[in-house]
Every structure is written in structure tokens, then in C-alpha cells.
Amino acid sequence: MAWGKAAAAEQPAQSVARRDAAAEAATYERCMKLARQNPDEARSLAQSWRERSGAHPADHCAAVALIGLKQYKEAALRLEALAQAMTTAPAGLRAEVLDQAGQAWGLAGDPVRAYAAAGAAVALEPKDPDLLIDRAQAAAGVGYYDKAVADLDHVLKADPSRVDALIYRASANRALDRLDPALTDVEKAIARAPNSAPALLERGNIRRLKGDDEGARQDWERVGQLAPGSQADMAAKANIEHVQSNGEAEPGRSR
Question: 107 or 6, which is more confident?
């Protein structure tokens, strides 16, 4: 999140020296880097920074650090509270915080609150394609596949080249048993990104449901070659094992 430039934007520009703004931006950048690499240290930095002057950027770093520490529910609650407190911040910045809250709720195993937070983010920035994709994923998490397709339709209408959106829409249509449009989307995705493990996993899932066991197996094996050890690889291997042992596959998620 590009909060460095916005760190001082909530205060009157006349009262903030340039060097102070630059120092705040540098602290935020360092804290966010730590949140990814050493979240426990980042949380400590954020706390001391907040006590000095960090305000909302420090709160944001602390919440992101909690995600790194796998304290997902607490992170989500803090991110939602932060978004509510950011009354003078730009809408795009608040939307990003709410979107992160939605992702944290998803990691916490609460898809309903994940969808609500993602929806609040889109309400602030209704044309942002990344927010729409995140809301579509959250919608799928609670079984709202039609709503997921609707969001992805908007994204792909604006940019038909979005491979991720094509894969997610294919997955949602598969869940709705709309296998022909699902296959069309995933074929488009593979045409643009032939080595995409998620796309190949999804095509394998769809092929299996359409009765093409050999094509499905080839796609799933290719996933293992391209992304060994990945979530897509684990899902593909599970599908192959199901086919071999039961003659049936439980299609793994492509996201």
C-alpha cells in the first residue's frame, strides 16, 4: 500500500515539514517490510512508532504484522476499525484497508465477514478491478457463485486480458455446472498464460467433469511439473489420486 505519501496527508500540509513527512514515509516502508519478513519485530516497531507519532500508518503496519503472526481475526478487526477511523483519508486508501480486512477474515475462516468487508471496499471504489476480483473470490467462499461471476464480468468487460479473472470466472461457472463457458474462459487464460498452474488445474477440473479423464490427468500432471509443492500441485495430486482410487475426482480449487 502506498501509504508513505499519504502518511502526512491527514494533517494540514502547512504544519508538517517535508523532512518529517519523509521520515514517516521511511518508517512506514521499513515497518511494512518487517511485517512480511519479521512480523513480531514489526509489531514492536509499530507500537513504539504509534506512541511517538505514527497514527494510522502505524496502526496499519501493526495489523498487517498480526496477519504474519497468523492472528487473523484480530488483524481483521483492527483493519476494519482502522478503515472506520480514517475519516479524512482518500477513499482508495480506505478501500485497500477494508480489502485487507476481508482477506484476513478469509484466513480466519469467516467467509461471511470476508465477503462483507470486500463489499465495503468495493462500495468505496466500485470500478477498481482488483477489489472486484477480491470480492468475487469472497463471494465464491460463501457459495455466491452468481455474484462472483457478475463481478468478474465487470472486470473482463473492462480488460478481457485479465488471466486471473478468466480463471476465477471459469471456477465459478464450473461450480454452477456451466461447463461450456467455464472451459471457454480457461482456454482463453491458457492461451495467454500457457504455463499457468492455476489455469491448468482448473482446465483439468473442467475436463474431468466433462468426461475427459485423460485430458484432465495431463493437465494435473503438468501442474506438478510447473509448480511442484504449490497449492495447485497438491490439489492436482489429490485429484489424480481420487481418480486412480475411486474413479472420481473432487476438483481442487484453482485459486
Answer: 107
CB-CB contact of 34 with 45 (8 Å): yes
The three three-digit cell numbers of residue 125, written as one number: 471504489
Would you say 174 and 198 are in contact if contact means Cβ atoms under 8 Å apart? no
Phi/psi for 161 (5° steps) reads -90, 0
| Closest alpha carbon to 174 in 243, 242, 232, 255 | 255
Spatial separation of the C-alpha atoms in residues 89 and 163, rounded to whole Å: 32
Instruction: Show the domains of the chain with their CATH numbers.
Output: 161-255 (1.25.40.10)
Q: What grid cell was written down for 179? A: 461447463
Residues with Cβ within 8 Å of 84's Cβ and at least 6 positions away in sequence, in order, are none
Query: Is the distance from CB of 238 to CB of 220 less than 8 angstroms?
Result: no
* Total-model pTM: 0.85
